[in-house]
Design brief:
Structural class of chain A: mainly alpha
Oligomer: homotetramer
CATH topology of the largest domain in chain A: Tetracycline Repressor, domain 2
CATH superfamily of the largest domain in chain A: Tetracycline Repressor, domain 2
Number of domains of chain A: 2
Distance between the termini of chain A: 44 Å
Radius of gyration of chain A: 19 Å
Number of helices of chain A: 9
Largest sheet of chain A: none
CATH class of the largest domain in chain A: Mainly Alpha
Helix content of chain A: 55-70%
Shape of chain A: elongated
Chain lengths: 197, 197, 197, 197
DNA sequence: CACTAAACGAGACGGTACGTCGAGTCTTGGA
DNA sequence: TCCAAGACTCGACGTACCGTCTCGTTTAGTG
């Protein structure tokens, strides 16, 4: 996102200041208002930037939001070098659940919501946020299989869906709180599926 | 939804024809366009109805959509009278997964998306669609606990989240298809958590 | 202009207040800025009115300006009941020249200028400003032919063009001032063409 | 126009190719679209030239147009060496009327229109197009005065306005066609004012 | 023959206004 | 009191150009 051509460029180069101002403004506004209520016009005004400058570099409002989210949020994936796959997974899940509670959780939910009618942005969000986490978890599971903790004929994708699905389910449906208690109990329970029967 | 006062009323009574026309029009338009692109104006025009009539009886666009969805979609919950709790649950999950694939799945996803900024409509959707299904499943699990199929100290809400979460996860994140194969494999795997250890 | 259908109307009637506010605002702005620099957006803001309301009732910016000009400017045609056709004509020409000097002259020039790319508005201007004056002058000339002051086989349109053309010529080309001295000398000279040879 | 400094210059000299390309492109575009719809951006693109190059050498869009018009149109002033001043004037007027009909007439009208808000360009147009013609006609009239054809105490400027005014009047107001019939009848009639008597 | 300095193309920049759409409200006449 | 019609104010859309700016690249004359 936010970069388009690798070809030799001519003309005035892209302004880094503007780019930063746009992402900063977006992030600032996101704390007060929803992605839905955010407008390109509002971002441009807040950033002191022309609308065209935004349209030139991002395909949609949601794309800007995803970009702002990814560059403004510390989105480290929990990678403690434990030799216990179960514990490692629990940590990763807890880390995600924590990241998705509060302000950031609301924003992620709204990004996914916007993504329903902006598939390109949803794709971008998956690539930059979702998949890296799934990938990390997969590695842990593979490790767990090697050590014999987990069932050897596990379907990894399915396992990811069961471990992470309930978190997004609560995030988006909002029927029950997405708190630490839930994440620890849920992950412990879900882990049962992975274990050697 | 779509009804407000129980008090004694005077003056011209509400027009049933208009109400039906509005829901019909909404449903018709939903097949072509997204909830997002749907507009009160568009519904009113399609239904041959004044905008005020819609605003009078529904609090928001999404509320109309939820109403249309609930009354137009056959939303029976699978209730076969089996004495096998596991099988019963599998059936329920498969039934939901099937209901959420195709057109209707898209609409549900869009309703949940709109719900992120229309909490009232999301609440309504939960009450009318989500909770009845969870309730039905809970009953089956309670039955399963009685028969000894399932662990007796299960947290029912948690169990629901693990069983249903992955479905909504795929529905909303769209990283992988939400098909029959997934639902059957997933539900079978997830059921492991419920079983007596 | 500013009225469209004679058909039976339903729905909320047009707001007279808005219409007046739009014309007032237009006229006020015209005193400060040129027709060219005037914008629908600016008029709407000044009038405290939505842009759509303007677009609903006028086909273009220039149409609003013509409307404002015609209703705000006292555009009486000089009609003294003299029995001397020559004198009468001189008065009419002097009256027009006076009307076209100063602020109003600038506005008329700008209307005609806009009219070059807005033929509909130019037509409107001709119908409401130009033609009534030409018609009045024609009547006087016809009178003058009857009394024997003027040549009996005059081409009336041609006569109008010779009498009025020089005024608009100076107004629009701006090579020389459009003042009283010019108008009186010019009209006296031009009248020679009409006289019996 | 299109040249600014006579001072000693260093650095890369002005590109004749670019200058020509700009005027050519302007002229080409003018045949399809109005001066109003023409844009610096459009000219630059059509000419394969940077916008700055245009801004460097011309003060405004209209200035480019005037330049293109003056260098692309054969704008010879009719100068037959007749000893009959009347005939000579009729020829000159007919020549102008002919020049101002069709495409070129439209462009002149649009230049004058733009000139209402670009006084510099209007001045330029007067200096390069209007005044030379007036000057030529004045000479003829002076000749006519000498030969006794015309009134000796004629106001030359006034005479010019009466002879040429009606043509621009029709050109810009568009109430009646600007054709050969008009120009010949009108000029013959207008000449009456100049004659002795 | 390198150096200097202006002109060049390209195109990004902050703006302004465009004409359109829909939101939610208001105001008619008629049922 | 409800209803359809449709006008109202308002805010945002995505686009087109404005006139300015910053690049790297010519292209002459000067030192």
């Amino acid at each position: 996102m936010a970069d388009k051509k690798a070809t030799i460029r001519t003309g005035r180069p892209r302004s880094i200041e503007s780019q930063q101002a746009i992402l900063d403004a977006t992030w600032k506004l996101l704390k007060k208002i929803s992605v839905r209520d955010l407008s390109i016009e509002g971002i441009a005004k807040e950033a002191g930037v022309g609308k065209t400058t935004i349209y030139r570099w991002w395909p949609s409002k949601t794309a800007v939001v995803v970009d702002a989210f990814m560059t403004r949020v510390i989105t480290d994936i929990c990678f403690s070098e434990s030799d216990n796959a179960q514990e490692e997974l629990l940590k990763q899940i807890a880390s995600l659940a924590k990241a998705l509670s509060g302000e950031n959780g609301r924003i992620v939910a709204e990004i996914i919501a916007e993504g329903q009618t902006d598939k390109e942005a949803l794709q971008d969000f998956r690539d930059r946020f979702l998949f890296p986490r799934r990938e990390a978890a997969k590695q842990v599971i593979i490790q767990g299989i090697k050590t014999g903790e987990f069932n050897s004929n596990l379907d990894l994708e399915l396992a990811m869906d069961i471990l992470y699905g309930p978190i997004y389910y609560r995030l988006l449906l909002g029927h029950l709180p997405l708190n630490q208690e839930f994440s620890s109990l849920m992950s412990e329970m879900a882990l049962q599926c992975l274990k050697k029967g």
